[in-house]
Amino acid sequence: MRADDLSLYLYDGCPFCERVRAAVVDLELQLEERNIFQDRAHMDDLIAARGRRTVPVLRIAKPDGDEWMPESADIVRYLYERFGEPGQGPPRGRGGFWSLFGG
Ligand SMILES: N[C@@H](CCC(=O)N[C@@H](CS)C(=O)NCC(=O)O)C(=O)O
User: Fold this and answer.
1) pTM of the full predicted structure?
2) Which of 51, 67, 68, 82 could form a disulfide with 60 if both were Cys (CB 3.0 to 4.6 A apart)?
């Protein structure tokens, strides 16, 4: 499913970003990734909006002003609530890094 109102600020190798990417893949979403180390404009936009460069941040385009959502757990929750089946959440029990945090 395309999510044209969403863009995800991130960089490669960031574990919290991979947590969000896993949700994007699981939900079969197509959204724009904005790599802050590949495009300086994305870094500048992020810092202008948030005052810091910490990623991941999900930018949600809205007519009355974009919402900038930080925190990987909040982003993952938002994506499953919006695009998932009722009661669906991140896959569990795979023994991966995030299982240490219950997800
Ligand atoms: N609690 C945050 C942690 C995010 C975080 O620490 N991101 C790291 C990369 S994995 C980062 O951007 N560090 C650089 C910085 O904060 O300037 C989350 O879950 O999203």
Assistant:
1) 0.91
2) 67
SS3 32: strand
Which top CATH class is 2-101? alpha beta
CA distance 8 to 69: 9
- Higher local confidence (pLDDT), 29 or 101: 29
In terms of phi and psi (left: phi > 0; alpha: psi -120 to 50; beta: otherwise), the region of 93 is: left
The CA distance from 14 to 84, in Å, is 24
* Residue 99 pLDDT exceeds 90: no
Q: Which two tokens stand for residue 36?
A: 């802050």
Which atom of ligand 1 is found nearest the CA of 14?
10
